[in-house]
């Protein structure tokens, strides 16, 4: 006998024995000529998988060729493919077509569907109805599958899969098919496993080799199926995230300026950037992962239970599921509130992240003030809160994991061994009668002292049944344990779903044209009127009030503002904090108009105190907020020359993408803002301290440029010296 337990020290006799063993195996194969049944399931599944793989490979190869050809055509058709804004078009159906440059000059075409404002207006009532029934739903908070969570998920589900005939539906149905197919393969593999053990005990080399080949063949579609399930899970998560993100963007970034109003809503929602990026991603991944992790064991429970019922009987299956339910109840009572823990951890991570971002954004100002010590203490405080919570979460998870591992992995496996051994023990305790003689069959030896062939077959058959049942019962126990773990993941998903749902609720609230700005008196407190297409700028008895929960009853910055200008230039002058910028906020619709009348032109333009520069090139900065398809080089050159920025063009060109907020000086930023005004050509522009960083001669040039282009302006400043550039002065 060859000692295969040692790794070294083999002699020539051991090597000779190995060679003889291989020769004997080859001789046995030639003599028996192992015949495969090409109509057997393993062979058919293997060949079908090969054909399907080849077909998919041909399809993706053909699609890759078509995609590369389209990219080549687009790169030739686009005049300046490196500019994203210049590569944007509005199609006839209202969708936006954009072209994004990839590596090596390649261009990808993306279609962004038109925002369905009618759908958003209808959806807001779903969120209002949910909020109205909040108190009733809170009573079911203790349940695992509480109606609050399911109702939230049902409402969000309409965003993830808006209609039946869509890509996400096909991905979901495909995943269901592969989950069922994987369970069926597991059943076949369990049967084949028992057959291999039976052949091994019976020392039937020919059948053993045949079934081993079958096992290797069926492993190919099984591996393919596992990979397909994971692939579909990730693709479905990506599809869900795409639909949900576009839904959020359509409300967050539109003419209602929800991105600004969400900070004035008075809602318990902070760091909305974290909600839109991290929470949406976690929600989609967790939901799709939960579907796979719950769907597979649930299907396994059904398939394996039906098969085991025929082998073990109904009583055994009832006992198994009684054990499952008993342990499920026990674990449920011992389960910490992972949903609340995850939600709080996400909130603390957001606070810590934004503290880091604040230091990065205001590093220069902090450096001037020498505020490192106080910023460090705040950072340490937020970090310590996060660490304390994570430590608590780890402690609770560890103690629960020990209990869960013992119950699900070992206790359930022990019950699996007990029930899988029942048929064998029952045959020994209650032997079957011999149909021919009517006597109980007994094990006996033949005249040569060898065991009876029938007894040997019975033993091997019992072993086959035991191995098959054992594998299925262990798989059943594993399915039950994975289902229990998935139920724990539901509590985590509940917390993430609640955060995403709260974000959507607040977005619908601020997106509503009747948004009340958190006013506790509601819309009845906001009764001012906006009049558009006015050939000047007029305010009649308008109070300038900071939006708070007190509404119009709060103390106003300016109690009653009235003026009317047509074809003239007006200077608002007053000290800091007097409400000058607040006037611009009311004119722009950022703050509520509690009373009075505002008449303004439809093309009223605003130039805020802090110059904003979007990502992109110098061309993009000049034409913002418009697209630059129709902006010629000569036009932009002329505008930049008017504001004395010729050197910027020579230095960076028009099409080089830069971070202009960091590249330009303060004066260059303000002059570039004036270039933006010249390109948009408004009838009136609001200048909110827009020349504070300019020298006196350059400041005079900017105002002269506006006058030369016949653009009227209203300046908000604390410098009376600017009155020489204006026709009227209004002191606050």
Mean pLDDT rating: 78
Provide the gyration radius in Å.
37 Å
Largest beta-sheet details: 5 strands, parallel
Q: What fold name goes in the CATH topology slot of the largest domain? A: ABC transporter transmembrane region fold
Q: Name the CATH superfamily classification of the largest domain.
A: ABC transporter type 1, transmembrane domain
Provide the spatial order of strands within the biggest beta sheet: 9-10-11-7-12
> Unreliable runs, pLDDT <50, ≥5 residues?
1-7, 80-86, 439-453
Number of domains: 3
Helix-strand makeup class: alpha/beta
Q: Strand fraction band?
A: 5-15%
| CATH architecture term of the largest domain | Up-down Bundle
Task: Explain this structure.
There is one protein chain. The chain has 732 residues and is α/β, with parallel strands linked by helices. The protein has 21 helices and twelve strands. It has helices at residues 12-32, 41-77, 117-132, 134-138, 147-160, 167-201, 205-252, 258-261, 272-312, 314-334, 338-361, 363-369, 372-429, 453-511, 580-588, 618-623, 633-642, 646-652, 660-663, 666-680, 696-708, and strands at 88-90, 96-101, 107-112, 529-531, 537-544, 558-565, 570-573, 597-599, 605-607, 684-688, 712-717, 728-731. The strands form three sheets. It has a five-stranded parallel beta sheet with strand order 9-10-11-7-12, sandwiched between helices. The protein has a four-stranded mixed beta sheet with strand order 4-8-5-6. It is elongated.
């Amino acid at each position: 006998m060859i000692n295969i337990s040692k790794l070294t020290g083999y002699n020539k006799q051991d090597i000779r024995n190995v060679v003889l063993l291989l020769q004997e195996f080859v001789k046995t194969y030639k003599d028996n000529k192992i015949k495969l049944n090409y109509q057997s399931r393993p062979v058919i599944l293997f060949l079908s998988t090969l054909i399907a793989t080849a077909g998919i490979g041909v399809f993706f190869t053909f699609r890759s060729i078509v995609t590369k050809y389209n990219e080549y055509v687009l790169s030739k058709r686009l005049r300046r493919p490196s500019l994203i804004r210049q590569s944007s078009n509005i199609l006839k159906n209202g969708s936006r077509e954009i072209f994004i440059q990839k590596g090596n000059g390649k261009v990808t075409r993306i279609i962004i569907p038109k925002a369905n404002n009618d759908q958003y207006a209808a959806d807001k009532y779903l969120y209002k109805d949910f909020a109205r029934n909040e108190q009733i739903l809170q009573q079911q908070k203790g349940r695992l599958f509480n109606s609050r969570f399911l109702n939230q998920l049902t409402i969000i589900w309409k965003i993830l899969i808006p209609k039946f005939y869509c890509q996400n539906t096909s991905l979901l149905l495909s995943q269901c098919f592969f989950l069922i197919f994987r369970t069926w393969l597991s059943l076949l593999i369990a049967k084949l496993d028992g057959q291999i053990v039976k052949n091994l005990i019976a020392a039937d080399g020919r059948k053993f080799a045949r079934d081993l080949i079958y096992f290797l063949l069926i492993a190919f579609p099984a591996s393919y199926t596992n990979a397909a399930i994971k692939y579909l899970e990730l693709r479905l998560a990506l599809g869900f995230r795409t639909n949900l993100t576009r839904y959020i963007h359509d409300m967050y970034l539109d003419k209602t300026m929800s991105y600004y109003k969400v900070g004035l809503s008075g809602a318990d929602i902070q760091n909305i950037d974290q909600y839109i990026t991290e929470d949406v991603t976690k929600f989609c991944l967790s939901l799709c992962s939960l579907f796979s992790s719950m769907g597979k064991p649930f299907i396994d429970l059904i398939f394996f239970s039906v098969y085991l019922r025929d082998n073990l009987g109904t009583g055994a299956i009832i006992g198994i599921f009684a054990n499952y339910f008993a342990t499920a109840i026990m674990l449920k009572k011992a389960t910490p509130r992972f949903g609340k823990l995850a939600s709080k951890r996400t909130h603390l991570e957001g606070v810590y992240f934004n503290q880091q971002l604040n230091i990065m954004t205001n590093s220069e100002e902090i450096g001037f003030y020498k505020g490192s010590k106080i910023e460090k203490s705040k950072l340490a405080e937020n970090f310590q809160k996060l660490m304390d919570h994570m430590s608590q979460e780890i402690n609770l998870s560890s103690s629960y994991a020990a209990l869960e591992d013992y119950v699900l992995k070992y206790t359930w496996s022990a019950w699996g061994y007990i029930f899988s051994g029942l048929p064998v023990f029952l045959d020994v305790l209650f032997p079957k009668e011999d149909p021919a003689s009517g006597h109980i069959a007994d094990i006996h030896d033949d005249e040569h002292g060898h065991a009876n062939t029938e007894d040997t077959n019975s033993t091997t058959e019992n072993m086959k049944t035991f191995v098959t049942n054992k594998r299925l019962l262990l798989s059943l126990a594993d399915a039950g344990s994975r289902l229990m773990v998935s139920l724990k993941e539901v509590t985590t998903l509940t917390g993430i779903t609640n955060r995403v749902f709260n974000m959507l609720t607040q977005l619908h609230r601020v997106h509503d044209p009747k948004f009340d700005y958190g006013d506790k008196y509601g819309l009845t407190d906001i009764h001012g009127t906006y009049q558009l297409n006015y050939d000047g700028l007029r305010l009649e008895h308008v109070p300038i009030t900071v939006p708070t929960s007190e509404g119009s009853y709060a103390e106003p910055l300016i109690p009653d503002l009235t003026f009317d200008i047509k074809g003239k230039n007006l200077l608002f002058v007053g000290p800091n904090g007097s409400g000058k910028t607040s006037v611009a906020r009311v004119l722009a619709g950022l703050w509520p108009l509690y009373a009075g009348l505002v008449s303004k032109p439809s093309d009223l333009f605003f130039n805020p105190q802090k110059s904003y520069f979007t990502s992109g090139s110098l061309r993009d900065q000049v034409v913002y907020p418009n697209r630059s398809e129709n902006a010629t080089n000569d036009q932009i050159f002329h505008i930049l020359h008017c504001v004395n920025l010729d050197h910027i063009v020579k230095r960076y060109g028009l099409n080089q993408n830069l971070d202009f907020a960091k590249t330009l000086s303060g004066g260059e930023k303000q002059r570039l803002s004036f270039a933006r005004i010249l390109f948009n050509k408004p009838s009136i522009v609001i200048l909110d301290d827009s020349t504070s960083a300019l020298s006196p001669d350059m400041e005079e040039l900017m105002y002269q440029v506006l006058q030369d282009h016949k653009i009227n302006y209203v300046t908000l400043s604390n410098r009376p010296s600017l009155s020489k550039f204006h026709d009227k002065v209004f002191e606050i």
